[in-house]
Amino acid sequence: MHAGRHYPLKHVILWTRRETFAFAVIAAVPTVLYATGWSWITVPWLPIALIGTAVAFITGFKNNASYARLWEARQIWGGIVNTSRSFGVMACDYLLQEPGLCGPAVDLAAARDGLIARHIAWLTALRFQLREPRAWENIGLVHNAEYRRYYQIPERDNDYLGIELGKLLTPADCAAILGTKNPAAQLLAQQSHALRDLRERGFLSDYRHVALTDALVELYEHQGKCERIKNFPYPRQFATLNLLFVWLFIALVPLGLLQEFSKLGDGFVWLTIPAGVIVAWVFHTMDKIGESTENPFEGGPNDVPITAIARAIEVDLREMAGQKDLPPLLQPRGEILM
Amino acid sequence: MHAGRHYPLKHVILWTRRETFAFAVIAAVPTVLYATGWSWITVPWLPIALIGTAVAFITGFKNNASYARLWEARQIWGGIVNTSRSFGVMACDYLLQEPGLCGPAVDLAAARDGLIARHIAWLTALRFQLREPRAWENIGLVHNAEYRRYYQIPERDNDYLGIELGKLLTPADCAAILGTKNPAAQLLAQQSHALRDLRERGFLSDYRHVALTDALVELYEHQGKCERIKNFPYPRQFATLNLLFVWLFIALVPLGLLQEFSKLGDGFVWLTIPAGVIVAWVFHTMDKIGESTENPFEGGPNDVPITAIARAIEVDLREMAGQKDLPPLLQPRGEILM
Amino acid sequence: MHAGRHYPLKHVILWTRRETFAFAVIAAVPTVLYATGWSWITVPWLPIALIGTAVAFITGFKNNASYARLWEARQIWGGIVNTSRSFGVMACDYLLQEPGLCGPAVDLAAARDGLIARHIAWLTALRFQLREPRAWENIGLVHNAEYRRYYQIPERDNDYLGIELGKLLTPADCAAILGTKNPAAQLLAQQSHALRDLRERGFLSDYRHVALTDALVELYEHQGKCERIKNFPYPRQFATLNLLFVWLFIALVPLGLLQEFSKLGDGFVWLTIPAGVIVAWVFHTMDKIGESTENPFEGGPNDVPITAIARAIEVDLREMAGQKDLPPLLQPRGEILM
Amino acid sequence: MHAGRHYPLKHVILWTRRETFAFAVIAAVPTVLYATGWSWITVPWLPIALIGTAVAFITGFKNNASYARLWEARQIWGGIVNTSRSFGVMACDYLLQEPGLCGPAVDLAAARDGLIARHIAWLTALRFQLREPRAWENIGLVHNAEYRRYYQIPERDNDYLGIELGKLLTPADCAAILGTKNPAAQLLAQQSHALRDLRERGFLSDYRHVALTDALVELYEHQGKCERIKNFPYPRQFATLNLLFVWLFIALVPLGLLQEFSKLGDGFVWLTIPAGVIVAWVFHTMDKIGESTENPFEGGPNDVPITAIARAIEVDLREMAGQKDLPPLLQPRGEILM
Amino acid sequence: MHAGRHYPLKHVILWTRRETFAFAVIAAVPTVLYATGWSWITVPWLPIALIGTAVAFITGFKNNASYARLWEARQIWGGIVNTSRSFGVMACDYLLQEPGLCGPAVDLAAARDGLIARHIAWLTALRFQLREPRAWENIGLVHNAEYRRYYQIPERDNDYLGIELGKLLTPADCAAILGTKNPAAQLLAQQSHALRDLRERGFLSDYRHVALTDALVELYEHQGKCERIKNFPYPRQFATLNLLFVWLFIALVPLGLLQEFSKLGDGFVWLTIPAGVIVAWVFHTMDKIGESTENPFEGGPNDVPITAIARAIEVDLREMAGQKDLPPLLQPRGEILM
């Protein structure tokens, strides 16, 4: 997430410089041909404008969907914050020594801290899983790869899941989790087994046991929603359509401009080149911004800042449990917060 | 679901080649007539542009609705993932030997595994039911049938419901289920009878019995939502309107282009044919992509990948229950994941 | 609901023939006047195009709202399916002889079947209430009344509420219900009284009593949502605006076309008539399709198929309860499913 | 709510006659100036069309928001219907003489009727509060005030809150409620105190006590949502923008039309006046209809019919409780249902 | 929130005067150049109109998103009202002396008042946290800073969190809270500890304890949703795009107008300046209004009035608990309600 006012104009220009050059070539070729006598190489502007409107529609539609995906991703992580805090207060205040029940003694504070540590482990596993690459993601494209000089992706560049989990779980639990297909999902199952254990030892009534399990059910929902956005891209049939239409339009624009400028006089046709570049740049950049938004967990600068959110949750939960040596909140680097 | 970056251009061209030929004919006929002297066969472009805008509106509207149907379908299956995992942890940790109650002994692990196996049977029945054909679906159209060379539909091409259920249920349960009108719905009813049985034997308290039944209620909701999308098509009155308007527009476009090109000079009118094909192709393909998206369970390459999701759920649940010999996750074939 | 691929072109033409004739007259009058010398009776096309865009906006808006009403109606009935199935499994598996409580003996199977029969009675009353006429509905308009030759509305043409309820309820209950202002609402109240009775006889714990009542609460929600759509039309102020704008636009179009065609030469002005009819037909039909969609319970061919859904629920519930002589599922007649 | 097919054309004309006159003046002034020689007072149509498109966008946006506000208001009152019916059946069937508890005797039927009467009192207080005036509402504008001859607002014209509550509550309760800042909110608090009282006397278990309180929680939600729509207008910054843009556009239209008509010949410029009025009327009326919809509780003819809905709830609840002398349902007066 | 009918025209003009001057310069430069002979400095209008349409699309899209953010913020605070009232009635009526349990005596009224005071403290902390500045907010821009002469932001201008909390909490609690990273979140954790204490003293059953905790869970949800809107701006990649496109369009408009006006005659080109200013002003102001809406907690005049809502909640809750000396409701100052 960019955490400032705007991306600098310089970054935008650098980020779009490759295709801007292509637009110039696409506009220059017919212009030169026209100037050398192929005066038939023009098309009336009006049908092109109609195609332009159609392109604006589908690009608008795609940007809408991209924005919705990003915003939903942020909502889900908002939900993770909320359920985590709720789970935190329940872990603090639902473990009681029931008068009517008795079981082997257990240190309630240790049980509480264990639940909280395993919860943080779940957050850690989840953010590592969400930042794994997918075939349709754009972060590997040359203009995006180049931009990685301005920020870092903790889950790929610095940290390792095994080490992070090792700080939070017992070695046995950690090993068991790392061997599964979906570590985050199995961490919640471990959490559920721990609650059953507390129930059997008499520190949870049936009713509070179910209330705590309901929090786990909600966490599964949040995780599943994240996985849905991660694993189900903006439909590739629409993306293919967009790609084809935008470039078809960009190829047609200079032909239409040639005709409009040629009406003004012969010297004017050379204005086709800058004008064509501007129109192409507007439509293509509109599309490209949408594309850079549609995968909110790809490790790009427009990602939902899940590393920072996970850290903030950790601080809140440890503060609730009265722990002291809290890690610092994460700050943006170069205006990018991950 | 296409699991790559884009459909190849070659596929798009092949997939639209039949109507592209039709557009050429539709554009050629008035052009030839014009060239042979029927110079009155032109229409001013502006009213056609207005119809084009209206067509863009209703096509955009339809694509919006198609996308919403696809996305909702994916959300529902995301919900099935979540509720399945929740049901899994409850099946593992809610069956307890209550201190205050006593009933005949039962193997809790066997009861748990039975619940999980029946759940997987429900997933299986559901995906078979969702992939049955409907009158309004497009998968049988020639351009889509042809495309089936690139992928396979497990529920139609390889597997059989009876055999799949036979691996998961007792023969008596299996036979009873296969005789009903809606096997998936009756499998959940069987699940509910099993819970009642566990309740009566004293392994579930009233409270946990209701909590597990609530999970079944959620599964009924997911199933009902899938059936809603499966059985209630994009309203045929709107689909009829779209079909008529798009073709009416395609028929009018060459008449308008003739007039625009004839202004440039007589030789230019022949450009009507390529220009007409391009405009028609843009509007028709936009419509056709929507049509290929509106039925997310028809067995097409743009389907929600329900076979793969069901398999992933199976793996998660068996891993939770500590089972070992897990089946592999499904991978895309030719970039199509089913 | 139309359950095929498309409405036949012939039906569309017949269904719109009256206003098509009107459009021809509206376009012919100024054309003839123009041809007889009133050459001032033209208007520049551009302002008309702007009004056309505004009309396209508000018609698109209305079709959006109509579609949303239809889709919500179908969602509600999907919800009715889900809650009905859930209520069915609860009726089967929540009635137990509690160990700690005792009351007069009752046949649990009879209690279960009574709950299910009353539920089907509720479905029946609801669909009769939803298919009653309202002042703003379109089913009585001549083009729609004419179309009723292709299908039948069971709740109006063949069946009677009193007879249908008589098959499901005791004569006393039936008489009491038929005397109330809102039979469906009071049937759920009867259902609630029956649950209280079962609670007092000791076959329901407090907890399961509330769980079953919660299902009734959900059914009230579904019923209330249906009544909202039934009793609150698409706001008449917007509908009035649409009607005025569409016809104002239709009246202006020929004046603008006259000017455009007159630029091409004098003979061309007669093309105003077919062109005017086409433009008018496109905009008016777009509006009319929306109007035919906005009341999803009016008994039209685009209705939500509530008779068929209610029958499917009946079959599912009776199958759950192990009943045998099940009625058949309803099939479309002439591609219309009611 | 208008409960017929359409507002009569005559009403629309009368309702918009003032600004129509203004449009004529605005169009006439530049036309006359032009005719008297100020031929420079024209503007090319195309930039004006672009502004027109922008105006259509923001007006469409506003009408969207207005419709959403109206529809949400109706949904909330649909929710009030549903929760009221649920509360009704709970009031009937949740009050029991618990076997394990005992308290002082109380007439359960009287308790039930008291709960229902207080609920109706809440509905009454709520609809009076919602129909109080706000600074941004339009009902006081001259064209709307004039329209009040066609209908009546019960909460302002005929009834008084104190009298209505006096029929439903004890004098002490009534006096206490009328002294508070938010009578409806405090009525629900009274209802909660009554439930506590029933709980302490042993007629409600802990579990059913909470279930009934949950219904109150839902009623608070409905009330709060109504208050949100009542107290938070369509944002005035957007409304200001709309007002400025529509009138700016209306002022520019005649300048553009002058140029278009002057192309046709000198006599044609006088057509600027009717054409300008039509364009202005279309855009302004579109805006004005939205404005008349955006406050659904202002006491206008497009209000949600909360008086009628409240009455229907009263009838349903009293019928559930077996009461006889029911008041009649409210009917539209002059097609307006309040 | 502006609580009147419209912002005065004078305020709008003052608020936009700086950029209006810039538009005049941008339009004047090419006009003067043209007049001095650079007659090639024109561009055909049609491609500019297409860019204008694209700009209208993305601005409309942004305003949509801004409105959605504002409206969601208001919905969340509506939810805070609802949950607060519910929490209020539960604090009043759920604290009981259970017959089956016994613990040390406590003054139930004091416990109730303590819960309510801590709830008000939470509201206070939340509104202070929400009104802290963020890097992307607009309140510091010169035209907005200037506007602060018309209203005041209580959380920045007059009040201090420490003093406000000191009136509501014990000194120990207050000190503990002020030392944490997120005081509002920790206040709810304190509230939860207080409930645990009441549970252990026997004044809450397990069931009512969980019901009250569920209210805290809901409050965490409301807080988390507010923080999501506060901490996650309208995506800066889209905002950057908007900024660039609007200014690019503004720079191109005079070039297109020059060409249109030059067609009318040489003197007409000077009309480019006022016309260019008007078009630029319309598009830029549309964008700027959206920008002033997108951060609903920045302390601007279009904020959600959270100070006033928090006060209204305080009054309702104290009235429920029978307290007397209530503070007054807040009124708008200069039509701005904060």
From TrEMBL, chains A, B, C, D, E:
The chain crosses the membrane at residues 21-38, 44-61, 238-258, 264-283. Pfam families: Bestrophin_2 (PF25539). Keywords: Cell membrane, Ion transport, Membrane, Transmembrane, Transmembrane helix, Transport. It is a multi-pass membrane protein. It is found in: Cell membrane. Its main location: membrane. GO terms for cellular component: plasma membrane. InterPro entries: YneE/VCCN1/2-like. Belongs to the anion channel-forming bestrophin (TC 1.A.46) family. PANTHER family: UPF0187 PROTEIN YNEE, VOLTAGE-DEPENDENT ANION CHANNEL-FORMING PROTEIN YNEE. This is Bestrophin family ion channel. It comes from Nannocystis pusilla.
